[in-house]
């Protein structure tokens, strides 16, 4: 197995630092266009729906293709897919920055999302496959920090570039800035990432790709555009249709596995309680975070009357605390069980949300108080995220790295879409009849309740001791009386 941990080449960043650019770039561009939509509408004479698809087109393509991207990394090598994704991301960004009309811009954003889905899963797959167990917790902490920091940095960078109006280019630099960054990342990745292992003849389950894409589309599209469409009838029909669509997709995957064909995703692995409950807990925590990004932007700009840049800057304490948790949590795993860490993190997260809610039932929540309360919130979410990610990546053998990478990424995106749609609608409805502070307080109260409820699947996921510590073999998912294929009997190793 190749490794990304040897000493870095003189003058070059380490391989892990290069891989972490994938979650950072993907997360940055998921939010960077949010603050630029008014300028895009004015510059391209676009409708509100067209500007909305500039944001939604990226998210939809990204969410739909994440599992496919993870599987392609397995069949063709994660280094190769990482490089392809980075280059395609840069090319799509160039097209977006030069787009002459809204149709070209929306198409470029869809291609950007598809490229992000190719490069993003390779970072987590690379960590699972190539980072030793004793260093994996720290690597996951850095992965989580890159993901969280990118979401906030996107809002800050987007607000700064639009406000600067460089050479009269208005919103275009928010996409063009990706081009030199992607070129640099691709050049360094070519030098420092280890070569992929040799792959035999293999193919991706195209029927599975089509089935999964249709199923995720039926969820993500209505959740993305439903609030602005007033939850028209088609959105509810689409959400209802997603249930049988997913049922059919899972049946085809089980059938493919039974016939000896490689499925798009191993459904038996996802059905394991340690995985299924862990993904549900992850969906709950990430859902509140993505919804927080949306509601804070609305509250700070419309409720407090500040600019787009301020709505990004106020989240810096949250991201900083999230990063601290990512560095502290791995050091605690030797003394504290992952289950206790997850429960403590959820408790701290819920307490922070509830404190913000209590403070917000005033007509105006002071910015300093809000920023201060973001510190325990970031610590709580960071602890939860690292504990759950460590649990999920260690609960399966390395051969399932693409499965868990794709499942984690897709679950987070669906959770984010559900959170923004549900909690965002709650905030906007409450803001229509009450002061902005009351609407924000009511929404964060719902965040806190969700965090408390999410402790239940977290406990169920970690009920069994599947956490892999240094020197402890990972559970291979087989019954105790069966050995993995090719394994030698005990005592003869």
Describe the protein in words.
The chain has helices spanning 15-19, 21-31, 37-44, 48-76, 78-97, 102-130, 133-164, 173-176, 178-192, 206-225, 233-258, 267-271, 273-303, 308-313, 316-332, 338-360, 367-394, 401-433, 436-461. The protein has 3 domains: 14-194, MFS general substrate transporter like domains (Growth Hormone, Chain: A, Up-down Bundle), CATH 1.20.1250; 207-264, no CATH class; 266-469, MFS general substrate transporter like domains (Growth Hormone, Chain: A, Up-down Bundle). By secondary structure, the protein is an all-alpha fold. 75% of the residues lie in helices and 0% in strands. The longest helix is centred in the last third of the chain and has 33 residues, at 401-433.
Distance between the termini: 19 Å
CATH fold-type name of the largest domain:
Growth Hormone, Chain: A
Helix content: over 70%
Strand segment tally: 0
Average pLDDT value?
81
Q: Spell out the CATH superfamily of the largest domain.
A: MFS general substrate transporter like domains
SSE string, helices as H and strands as E: HHHHHHHHHHHHHHHHHHH
Largest sheet: none
Characterize the overall form.
globular
Q: Enumerate the spans where pLDDT stays under 50 for 5 or more consecutive residues.
A: 5-11, 465-493
Structural class: mainly alpha
Total domain units: 3
- Helices, by number, come to 19
* Highest CATH level, the class of the largest domain: Mainly Alpha
Which radius of gyration do the C-alpha atoms yield? 22 Å
The name of the CATH architecture of the largest domain is Up-down Bundle
């Amino acid at each position: 197995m190749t490794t990304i941990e040897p000493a870095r080449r003189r003058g070059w960043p380490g391989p892990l630092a290069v891989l972490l650019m994938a979650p950072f770039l993907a997360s940055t561009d998921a939010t960077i266009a949010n603050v630029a939509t008014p300028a895009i509408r004015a510059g391209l004479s676009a409708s509100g729906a067209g500007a909305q698809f500039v944001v939604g087109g990226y998210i939809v393509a990204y969410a739909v293709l994440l599992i496919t991207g993870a599987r392609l990394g397995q069949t063709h090598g994660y280094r190769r897919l990482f490089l392809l994704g980075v280059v395609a991301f840069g090319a799509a960004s160039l097209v977006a920055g030069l787009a002459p009309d809204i149709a070209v811009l929306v198409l470029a954003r869809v291609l950007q999302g598809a490229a992000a889905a190719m490069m993003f899963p390779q970072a987590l797959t690379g960590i699972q496959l190539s980072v030793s167990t004793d260093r994996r917790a720290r690597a996951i902490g850095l992965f989580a920090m890159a993901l969280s920091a990118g979401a906030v940095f996107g809002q800050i960078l987007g607000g700064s570039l639009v406000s600067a109006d460089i050479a009269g280019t208005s919103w275009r630099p928010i996409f063009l800035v990706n081009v030199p960054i992607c070129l640099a990342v691709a050049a360094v990745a070519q030098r420092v990432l280890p070569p992929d292992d040799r792959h035999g003849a293999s193919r991706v389950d195209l029927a599975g790709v089509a089935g999964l894409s249709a199923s995720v589309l039926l969820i993500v599209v209505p959740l993305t555009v439903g609030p602005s469409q007033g939850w028209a009838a088609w959105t509810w029909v689409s959400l209802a249709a997603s249930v049988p669509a997913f049922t059919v997709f899972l049946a085809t995957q089980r059938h493919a596995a039974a016939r000896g064909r490689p499925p798009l995703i191993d459904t038996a692995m996802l059905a394991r309680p340690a995985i299924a409950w862990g993904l549900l807990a992850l969906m709950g925590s990430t859902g509140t975070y993505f919804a927080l990004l949306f509601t804070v932007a609305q509250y700070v700009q419309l409720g407090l009357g500040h600019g787009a840049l301020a709505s990004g800057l106020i989240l810096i304490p949250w991201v900083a605390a999230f990063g601290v948790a990512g560095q502290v949590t791995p050091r605690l795993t030797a003394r504290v069980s992952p289950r206790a860490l997850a429960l403590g993190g959820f408790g701290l997260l819920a307490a922070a949300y509830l404190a913000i809610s209590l403070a917000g039932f005033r007509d105006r929540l002071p910015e300093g108080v809000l920023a201060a309360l973001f510190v325990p919130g970031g610590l709580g979410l960071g602890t939860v995220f690292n504990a759950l990610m460590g649990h999920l990546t260690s609960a399966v053998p390395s051969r399932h790295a693409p499965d868990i990478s794709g499942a984690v990424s897709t679950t987070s995106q669906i959770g984010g879409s559900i959170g923004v749609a549900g909690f965002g609608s709650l905030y906007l409805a409450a803001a229509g009849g009450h002061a902005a502070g009351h609407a924000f307080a009511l929404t964060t109260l719902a965040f806190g309740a969700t965090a408390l409820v999410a402790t239940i699947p977290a406990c169920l996921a970690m009920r069994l001791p599947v956490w892999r510590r240094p020197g402890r073999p990972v559970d291979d998912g087989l019954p105790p009386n069966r050995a993995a294929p090719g394994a030698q009997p005990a005592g003869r190793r």
